[in-house]
């Protein structure tokens, strides 16, 4: 992007949030609804949808390539729209593949893996370039609030789609599943396309000339040589691994240790998500109202969110040993609050650091960080569940198993806090970059 670009208004930030809402609407159908259909209606092993979701995360290792493409092309909009259309095609294909499993299981599974590959490509292309556009076009004072708005709107997409599509799917049939998925995908792609229409007007850069275009592998090496980018990549992986490792074990924990029914454990997840939303909103408000040194605020707030998340997980470990007298709901709410504060501050830092270093690399940096996050999310849920199985085989009681795993997740968050302390600490003295071509510079904080 050009240096004299205009920043997005709040309406512009909201428009980009609509893209995230649309993206979330399609993702929730493929990762949640189809999961249930495969396991319940088709009586297939639960590991199948788990493998498909993990596969779609693995495909998102291609995120740096999609970010690099928009860096070289000068515009993010075509990549966002193209990614959303690809995601929509993948979602419809996944629904059709699920229907095929009813009569031809093997063919349906093969088709599903192809469809989830397409979904991974679509999420990677659209999501990476959406964040890159948000990072380059959002004023520094608004980055924390913009991160919160976009993520809250994605959660809104989850909730809205789960509610509306849930009603439309009854009475359930495979043909109805395909029709509803087509409708959701069509509306989502239309809304996303409308939201980004002309949003880059007056701020689109000319494509990089062939003579100046850096090969993709070289661009990746150059960014990895940037100390801040490398540190942040490692931080994203460790923090998101800790963040996602709790996902699949919290509700079983409530059922096994506290005797919660399925309905009560689902409500507990609602308590946690409520805390996440409040944490996001508080971080956005504080981050917008502070004065100077917003990058420093993001770093400190990220560290604080990681430490608070670690304390909440260690408290859950204690609660596993104490039993039913422990205030579980309050503990889970504080975990959600800490997670929400950490997530928005980390995303705000990501948006700030995307423009630190060589210019015209924002998309590639976002792609590297997005790939790191995708790998962590793909591993986190699996490793958290596997750790419970492993520790239950070692310890004599289930309480000790959960206490050990929650305690280890808390330790990972403390490691993430230590990593966050080094990210963004300085922009000139601490960064050790190779010599830059004439005209490039490090932007001031």
What this model shows, in words?
The protein has 445 residues and is an all-alpha fold. The protein folds into two domains: 8-202, MFS general substrate transporter like domains (Growth Hormone, Chain: A), CATH 1.20.1250.20; 216-431, Up-down Bundle (Growth Hormone, Chain: A), CATH 1.20.1250. Helix content is 76%, strand content 0%. Helix 6 (143-168) runs antiparallel to helix 11 (262-289). The protein is globular. Mean pLDDT is 85; it is low at 427-445.
Task: Note the main attributes of this structure.
15 helices; 445 residues; globular; Growth Hormone, Chain: A; mainly alpha; 76% helix
Topology:
Elements (H helix, E strand, L loop, with lengths): L9 H32 L5 H13 L3 H11 L3 H24 L4 H33 L5 H26 L5 H23 L19 H9 L2 H19 L4 H9 L3 H28 L4 H29 L5 H26 L8 H33 L3 H25 L23
Structure, briefly:
The chain has helices at 10-41, 47-59, 63-73, 77-100, 105-137, 143-168, 174-196, 216-224, 227-245, 250-258, 262-289, 294-322, 328-353, 362-394, 398-422.
Main β sheet profile: none
Instruction: Provide the CATH topology of the largest domain.
Output: Growth Hormone, Chain: A
The proportion of residues forming helix, as a percent range, comes to: over 70%
According to CATH, the homologous superfamily of the largest domain is MFS general substrate transporter like domains
How many independent structural domains? Answer: 2
Overall CATH class of the largest domain: Mainly Alpha
Shape: globular
Could you report the average pLDDT, rounded to the nearest whole number? 85
Tally of individual helices? 15
Distance between the termini: 18 Å
- Which percent band covers the strand fraction? under 5%
Radius of gyration over C-alpha positions, nearest whole angstrom: 22 Å
Label the CATH architecture of the largest domain. Up-down Bundle
Low-confidence parts lasting 5 or more residues at pLDDT below 50? 427-445
User: What is the number of E strands?
Assistant: 0
Structural class: mainly alpha
Pattern of helices and strands: HHHHHHHHHHHHHHH
